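Please check the following.

. . .
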Amino acid sequence: MSDRSTKRLSAEELDAELARLEAMRDEDIDTSDIPEITDAQWKTAIRGRDRTIEVTLPVYATTIEWFKNNSENADFKSEINRVLRQYVIDAVRKAG
């Protein structure tokens, strides 16, 4: 790894680095260590970051208690969201 990727750049250095990268042609970028994306991977890709919305829905009390008692940092709502998100990702992949 070069010093360029590990040291903190000044604003001027950052501007110069961004200009250098912007001027590069696609064929000059070394992608030899990046695997190709397959058509199957594109079919199950989820684009960008999703936004969250507040919802009210009935959930069994025992389910909520389990998440409250088993979630890291007492953030059970985020853990429920993560589990639901993973379920959707798995379902999309299975259908793909």
Notes: The radius of gyration is 22 Å. The chain has a mean pLDDT of 86.
